[in-house]
Amino acid sequence: MKTYKYLLLLIGISILGCSDLEEAPVGLLAPEGFFNSVADLQTAVNGTYGHMTDEDFWGRKMSLPLMLRSDMVAIGDPTTSTRRIEHDEFNVPTDNGMISGYWNRVYQIIAAANQAIAGAELIGVADELKNPVVAQAYFARAFAYFHLVRQFGDIPYLDAPVTDAAAAGAISKTSAADVYTNIIADLGFAKIWLPNTQDARSIPAKSAAHSYLALVYLTMGDYPKAYAEAKGVIDNEGIYSLGLEPDFQDLFDATTIDGSKEPIFALDFNGFRDGDLGQDYAPALTGLRNDEQYGLGGGWSVGVPSLEVYNTWDDGDYRKSVSLDDTGVFNGVVQPYTVFKESGASGRGVNRPHIAKYTRHTGVTANGNGRASQNNYSMIRYAEVLLIAAEALNEVTPGTTEAEGYVNRVRKRARDGALGSTPSAFPADVSGLSKDDFRTMVLEDRKWELAFEFKRWYDIARRRMGPEVFSASGLEGAKPGFDENQDYLYPLPSDELARNPNLLPNNPNY
User: Fold this and answer.
1) Which residue from 492, 470, 507, 499 is spatially nearest to 72, judged by alpha carbons?
2) Are the C-beta atoms of residues 264 and 347 closer than 8 Å to each other?
3) Residue 7 has pLDDT above 60, yes or no
4) Statement: residue 3 has pLDDT above 70
5) Mean pLDDT of the region 358-364
6) Do residues 469 and 478 lie in contact, with contact meaning Cβ atoms separated by under 8 Å?
7) Which one, of 268, 265, 302, lies nearest residue 286 by Cα?
8) What is the C-alpha to C-alpha distance for residues 342 and 335, in angstroms, rounded to an integer?
9) Is the separation of the CB atoms in 160 and 114 below 8 Å?
10) What is the DSSP letter of 296?
11) Where is each SusD-like N-terminal domain found (predicted)?
12) Is 25 a residue whose pLDDT tops 70?
């Protein structure tokens, strides 16, 4: 039988639960024979989230380009694969391997969500019983499309299972505006039907849909609605069981993060590796090559902060020491970052501080350069919601103490430091800024608060900051490959265009 590969849209779905979800491999499913109960629906929904920990999605192919395209992280190992270097240098061809693998996987997530949503119609129980479960699929579909539309712009949009692969392979693009409309509708359904809390943050609750609506509106530049949604989350802080984690380090400690109130939606790696499913590549990609200090066998020194990130980040900011390692251990000797390459990298590294968020506390089962970690990756956390509210309110009503207060809550933790330590004077509370200065400040605060959490590129793109941050005065110095008429979007994969000419033309200048 011919195998159609258009978007990897599956008529059946492959189910594999992820951490804190039921694990039930059941192969390819015929929906009429499988969806008989709410438990069957939950199994299908679990598979949707299982895809998210694959190497093609958060394991490596989506997360690494987001980091490299920012102004904070550059290639450390000059011998790493060309397809990674192309993102760092903004020289991405249409056949870039990081994009093609990711594109297929994200549509597989969407296909699984569509199958679960359709399957819910086959279950003869009250909406009150099945909708809280199917709302998880609506959230997953919105989450997947939100990444796609920010990266590619106009894209194929499918909201039902594919029963005719040939027809699916001839689909045209949907405008980004219409994709956003559909994302908002899906999140609206999820916001209504998801419960206020879940057993784990890897299962979306009402707060996740509510918070993502705020972020979607912020990305669209609809600041009144972004503020309203973010304020709605803040007003329901107690009901949603949200709060700022007292010690910033605990947000990046796999042994403590499960008890934190700050993550709102997270991808949870649980220490197993099944091929490329469940492998956490962030510790390997960001860790210091041959470093002995965490017992992981070191990392690969691929994504490494620019030296100016370290030099311009105030030492009084506790987040700096949590986020960066400026020493390593080689042959039992502690060495400064100025000799990293000579001490242990064997020519495959760089003398710059490395990211510590994903290597310092990976959990007890971590091995293979940290790829079998128990890390949780916060896709959105409460501190970001506070900063969304501040940024959006400043655009609507500048100069309010309310907007200042949201930023100051986040800043207070940064200067308080580790629990029991003496607070520093930095970063000081903000007060009395003009609208423009406040906007600049809050984008800077997002940069430091969410450093290396795969957010910065999206901020650069939505605020069109490329010419500024990739200039000679930027953190990485001049990046001549950046073209503001091209590089805010990825190219559509060339193999997809070859299979389906209806997706032509490619994005501008590709």
Assistant:
1) 470
2) no
3) no
4) no
5) 93
6) no
7) 302
8) 10
9) yes
10) S
11) 60-218
12) no
